[in-house]
Backbone:
């Protein structure tokens, strides 16, 4: 069975959870590194607003990753980007 843990809370709670469980925060950002090198088993995925991207708090955390895009594409819809990134992170081996 597939399980996807989702949590809502403060950034302080996020930082504490990441530290307690040794999780690497990965922030989806157009200026990030291609996701390939950062395929980690124990990570958080931070997604931002479709128009503005990651919040200032989100930008301060972890490695910034991106989905390599061909052509003059500006960005992906946040739900499409999240689905692609989760698939790529899930299939890290």
Residues:
């Amino acid at each position: 069975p597939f399980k996807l843990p989702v949590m809502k809370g403060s950034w302080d709670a996020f930082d504490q959870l990441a530290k307690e469980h040794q999780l690497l925060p990965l922030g989806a950002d157009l200026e990030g590194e291609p996701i390939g090198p950062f395929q980690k088993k124990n990570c958080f995925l931070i997604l931002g607003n479709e128009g503005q991207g990651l919040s200032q708090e989100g930008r301060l955390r972890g490695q910034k990753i991106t989905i390599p895009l061909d052509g003059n594409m500006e960005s992906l819809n946040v739900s499409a980007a999240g689905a692609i990134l989760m698939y790529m992170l899930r299939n890290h081996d």
User: Anything to note?
Assistant: The longest strand covers residues 24-34. Strands lie at 24-34, 43-46, 63-66. The CA atoms of residues 12 and 93 lie 31 Å apart.
